Amino acid sequence: MEQEKIKLKLFPPQPPPSMEEERKYAELFNWLNDTKVLVHEDYVGDSKQPIRSLFGKLGLFYPFIQKFIIFKKNEGQDASRQTIEEMAKIIREMDIEYKKIPRTNGSSEFQQFLKAWQAKFGSYLDKYKDNEVLMSFLDNFGNLYHKDIWFDIKKLENILTLFYAINSWDDGDSILDELVKTYCEDPLKYFEWFHAAPTRYGGGRKLTRRRKSNPKSKSKRKHKRRSYKKSSYKRQRH
Description:
- By secondary structure, the protein is mainly alpha-helical.
- The protein has one domain (2-209).
- The chain is built from 13 helices and two strands, in the order H-H-H-E-E-H-H-H-H-H-H-H-H-H-H.
- The chain has a two-stranded antiparallel ribbon with strand order 1-2.
- It is globular and about 60 Å long.
- The model is unreliable at 203-238 (pLDDT under 50).
Protein backbone atom coordinates (compact mmCIF):
# COMPACT_ATOMS: atom_id res chain seq x y z
CA MET A 1 0.00 0.00 0.00
CA GLU A 2 2.81 2.42 0.90
CA GLN A 3 4.56 1.71 -2.41
CA GLU A 4 1.35 2.52 -4.28
CA LYS A 5 1.10 5.87 -2.47
CA ILE A 6 4.68 6.71 -3.42
CA LYS A 7 4.07 5.77 -7.06
CA LEU A 8 0.91 7.90 -7.21
CA LYS A 9 2.81 10.84 -5.76
CA LEU A 10 5.68 10.47 -8.22
CA PHE A 11 3.49 9.57 -11.20
CA PRO A 12 -0.04 11.00 -10.98
CA PRO A 13 -2.61 9.24 -13.25
CA GLN A 14 -2.45 10.25 -16.90
CA PRO A 15 -5.14 9.88 -19.59
CA PRO A 16 -5.29 6.51 -21.35
CA PRO A 17 -3.57 6.13 -24.73
CA SER A 18 -5.33 7.54 -27.76
CA MET A 19 -6.26 5.41 -30.76
CA GLU A 20 -3.29 6.88 -32.59
CA GLU A 21 -0.94 5.91 -29.74
CA GLU A 22 -2.40 2.40 -29.61
CA ARG A 23 -1.58 1.99 -33.29
CA LYS A 24 1.84 3.62 -32.99
CA TYR A 25 2.91 1.48 -30.03
CA ALA A 26 0.94 -1.64 -30.91
CA GLU A 27 3.97 -3.92 -30.68
CA LEU A 28 4.79 -2.61 -27.22
CA PHE A 29 1.22 -3.04 -25.93
CA ASN A 30 1.04 -6.57 -27.28
CA TRP A 31 4.34 -7.44 -25.60
CA LEU A 32 3.21 -6.01 -22.25
CA ASN A 33 -0.11 -7.84 -22.30
CA ASP A 34 0.66 -11.12 -24.03
CA THR A 35 4.19 -12.08 -22.99
CA LYS A 36 3.88 -14.32 -19.92
CA VAL A 37 6.74 -14.68 -17.42
CA LEU A 38 7.14 -16.31 -14.01
CA VAL A 39 6.52 -13.67 -11.33
CA HIS A 40 7.70 -14.33 -7.76
CA GLU A 41 5.42 -13.12 -4.96
CA ASP A 42 5.66 -13.47 -1.19
CA TYR A 43 2.11 -14.32 -0.17
CA VAL A 44 0.32 -15.84 -3.15
CA GLY A 45 3.22 -17.83 -4.58
CA ASP A 46 4.82 -17.80 -8.01
CA SER A 47 2.70 -17.70 -11.15
CA LYS A 48 2.83 -16.92 -14.86
CA GLN A 49 1.64 -13.37 -15.47
CA PRO A 50 1.86 -10.75 -18.23
CA ILE A 51 5.18 -8.97 -18.18
CA ARG A 52 3.28 -5.78 -17.31
CA SER A 53 2.96 -7.24 -13.79
CA LEU A 54 6.73 -7.21 -13.40
CA PHE A 55 6.92 -3.53 -14.28
CA GLY A 56 4.21 -2.89 -11.69
CA LYS A 57 5.93 -4.82 -8.91
CA LEU A 58 9.29 -3.19 -9.64
CA GLY A 59 7.92 0.32 -10.10
CA LEU A 60 10.07 1.89 -7.37
CA PHE A 61 13.20 0.69 -9.16
CA TYR A 62 12.33 2.41 -12.44
CA PRO A 63 15.61 4.47 -12.58
CA PHE A 64 17.59 1.23 -12.42
CA ILE A 65 15.40 -0.40 -15.09
CA GLN A 66 15.80 2.69 -17.28
CA LYS A 67 19.58 2.37 -17.06
CA PHE A 68 19.44 -1.22 -18.24
CA ILE A 69 17.14 -0.43 -21.19
CA ILE A 70 19.41 2.38 -22.37
CA PHE A 71 22.49 0.18 -21.82
CA LYS A 72 20.92 -2.57 -23.93
CA LYS A 73 20.10 -0.02 -26.64
CA ASN A 74 23.57 1.52 -26.72
CA GLU A 75 25.86 -1.42 -25.95
CA GLY A 76 24.01 -4.27 -27.62
CA GLN A 77 22.74 -7.71 -26.71
CA ASP A 78 26.05 -9.39 -25.87
CA ALA A 79 27.16 -6.72 -23.40
CA SER A 80 23.77 -6.63 -21.68
CA ARG A 81 23.68 -10.44 -21.47
CA GLN A 82 27.08 -10.47 -19.74
CA THR A 83 25.81 -7.79 -17.36
CA ILE A 84 22.75 -9.85 -16.42
CA GLU A 85 24.91 -12.93 -15.86
CA GLU A 86 27.18 -11.02 -13.49
CA MET A 87 24.12 -9.85 -11.55
CA ALA A 88 22.76 -13.40 -11.46
CA LYS A 89 26.01 -14.73 -9.96
CA ILE A 90 25.87 -12.21 -7.13
CA ILE A 91 22.19 -12.88 -6.45
CA ARG A 92 22.68 -16.66 -6.38
CA GLU A 93 25.53 -16.28 -3.91
CA MET A 94 23.48 -13.89 -1.76
CA ASP A 95 20.59 -16.35 -1.74
CA ILE A 96 22.73 -19.33 -0.71
CA GLU A 97 24.55 -17.51 2.09
CA TYR A 98 21.53 -15.60 3.39
CA LYS A 99 19.62 -18.84 3.92
CA LYS A 100 22.35 -20.15 6.20
CA ILE A 101 22.25 -17.41 8.83
CA PRO A 102 19.73 -16.59 11.61
CA ARG A 103 17.52 -13.60 10.84
CA THR A 104 18.04 -11.91 14.23
CA ASN A 105 19.77 -8.59 13.68
CA GLY A 106 21.71 -8.75 16.95
CA SER A 107 23.14 -12.22 16.47
CA SER A 108 26.91 -12.47 16.02
CA GLU A 109 26.41 -14.63 12.92
CA PHE A 110 24.31 -11.95 11.28
CA GLN A 111 26.78 -9.18 12.09
CA GLN A 112 29.64 -11.22 10.65
CA PHE A 113 27.51 -11.86 7.58
CA LEU A 114 26.93 -8.13 7.10
CA LYS A 115 30.62 -7.28 7.43
CA ALA A 116 31.59 -9.99 4.96
CA TRP A 117 29.10 -8.78 2.37
CA GLN A 118 30.01 -5.14 2.87
CA ALA A 119 33.61 -6.02 2.09
CA LYS A 120 32.49 -8.08 -0.90
CA PHE A 121 30.40 -5.26 -2.32
CA GLY A 122 33.34 -2.95 -1.82
CA SER A 123 35.44 -5.17 -4.07
CA TYR A 124 32.63 -5.29 -6.64
CA LEU A 125 32.64 -1.50 -6.86
CA ASP A 126 36.16 -1.58 -8.25
CA LYS A 127 35.48 -4.61 -10.47
CA TYR A 128 32.40 -3.10 -12.15
CA LYS A 129 33.40 0.59 -12.19
CA ASP A 130 33.15 0.73 -15.99
CA ASN A 131 29.66 -0.79 -16.16
CA GLU A 132 26.90 1.72 -15.36
CA VAL A 133 24.20 -0.93 -14.86
CA LEU A 134 26.24 -3.03 -12.43
CA MET A 135 27.28 0.09 -10.51
CA SER A 136 23.60 1.04 -10.26
CA PHE A 137 22.81 -2.50 -9.10
CA LEU A 138 25.39 -2.21 -6.31
CA ASP A 139 24.10 1.25 -5.41
CA ASN A 140 20.50 0.01 -5.18
CA PHE A 141 21.09 -3.31 -3.45
CA GLY A 142 24.51 -3.04 -1.85
CA ASN A 143 23.56 -1.24 1.36
CA LEU A 144 23.15 -4.22 3.65
CA TYR A 145 21.72 -2.21 6.53
CA HIS A 146 18.39 -2.26 4.65
CA LYS A 147 18.24 -6.04 4.54
CA ASP A 148 14.44 -6.12 4.09
CA ILE A 149 14.87 -4.66 0.61
CA TRP A 150 18.33 -5.68 -0.47
CA PHE A 151 17.98 -9.32 0.56
CA ASP A 152 14.55 -9.76 -0.96
CA ILE A 153 15.65 -12.53 -3.32
CA LYS A 154 12.23 -12.75 -4.97
CA LYS A 155 12.45 -9.09 -5.95
CA LEU A 156 15.96 -9.59 -7.27
CA GLU A 157 14.87 -12.62 -9.30
CA ASN A 158 11.98 -10.59 -10.74
CA ILE A 159 14.50 -7.99 -11.90
CA LEU A 160 16.56 -10.69 -13.58
CA THR A 161 13.44 -12.06 -15.29
CA LEU A 162 12.52 -8.62 -16.61
CA PHE A 163 16.05 -7.95 -17.86
CA TYR A 164 16.28 -11.33 -19.59
CA ALA A 165 12.96 -10.62 -21.33
CA ILE A 166 14.12 -7.21 -22.53
CA ASN A 167 17.45 -8.61 -23.66
CA SER A 168 15.73 -11.32 -25.72
CA TRP A 169 15.05 -8.71 -28.42
CA ASP A 170 17.60 -8.52 -31.20
CA ASP A 171 19.65 -5.36 -31.54
CA GLY A 172 17.74 -2.85 -33.65
CA ASP A 173 14.26 -4.22 -32.87
CA SER A 174 11.66 -1.46 -33.15
CA ILE A 175 10.07 -2.47 -29.85
CA LEU A 176 13.28 -1.43 -28.08
CA ASP A 177 12.93 2.05 -29.56
CA GLU A 178 9.31 2.15 -28.34
CA LEU A 179 10.42 1.15 -24.84
CA VAL A 180 13.16 3.78 -24.75
CA LYS A 181 10.71 6.45 -25.93
CA THR A 182 7.98 5.62 -23.41
CA TYR A 183 9.68 4.13 -20.34
CA CYS A 184 12.94 6.09 -20.39
CA GLU A 185 12.43 9.43 -22.14
CA ASP A 186 9.02 10.42 -20.75
CA PRO A 187 8.11 8.14 -17.81
CA LEU A 188 5.74 10.70 -16.28
CA LYS A 189 3.44 10.52 -19.28
CA TYR A 190 3.69 6.80 -19.97
CA PHE A 191 4.17 5.36 -16.48
CA GLU A 192 0.66 3.90 -16.23
CA TRP A 193 1.04 2.15 -19.56
CA PHE A 194 3.42 -0.19 -17.76
CA HIS A 195 1.74 -0.37 -14.37
CA ALA A 196 -2.03 -0.20 -14.90
CA ALA A 197 -4.13 -3.34 -15.35
CA PRO A 198 -4.18 -4.71 -18.93
CA THR A 199 -7.94 -4.13 -19.13
CA ARG A 200 -7.33 -0.39 -18.72
CA TYR A 201 -4.37 0.19 -21.01
CA GLY A 202 -4.16 -1.99 -24.09
CA GLY A 203 -6.98 -4.26 -23.04
CA GLY A 204 -4.97 -7.40 -23.69
CA ARG A 205 -6.17 -7.43 -27.29
CA LYS A 206 -4.01 -7.87 -30.36
CA LEU A 207 -3.89 -4.25 -31.44
CA THR A 208 -2.23 -5.00 -34.75
CA ARG A 209 -5.16 -7.22 -35.74
CA ARG A 210 -8.08 -5.07 -34.74
CA ARG A 211 -11.05 -5.32 -37.05
CA LYS A 212 -14.30 -3.44 -36.98
CA SER A 213 -17.48 -5.17 -37.94
CA ASN A 214 -21.07 -4.12 -38.35
CA PRO A 215 -23.10 -5.94 -35.67
CA LYS A 216 -26.27 -5.67 -37.78
CA SER A 217 -24.77 -7.25 -40.85
CA LYS A 218 -23.19 -9.89 -38.65
CA SER A 219 -26.57 -10.86 -37.20
CA LYS A 220 -28.06 -11.02 -40.71
CA ARG A 221 -25.34 -13.41 -41.84
CA LYS A 222 -26.02 -15.64 -38.87
CA HIS A 223 -29.73 -15.63 -39.64
CA LYS A 224 -29.12 -16.56 -43.28
CA ARG A 225 -26.88 -19.42 -42.30
CA ARG A 226 -29.49 -20.76 -39.91
CA SER A 227 -32.16 -20.57 -42.64
CA TYR A 228 -29.93 -22.46 -45.05
CA LYS A 229 -29.25 -25.18 -42.50
CA LYS A 230 -32.96 -25.62 -41.77
CA SER A 231 -33.93 -25.86 -45.46
CA SER A 232 -31.10 -28.27 -46.12
CA TYR A 233 -32.18 -30.40 -43.19
CA LYS A 234 -35.76 -30.51 -44.48
CA ARG A 235 -34.57 -31.61 -47.93
CA GLN A 236 -32.63 -34.45 -46.38
CA ARG A 237 -35.70 -35.58 -44.44
CA HIS A 238 -37.82 -35.71 -47.63
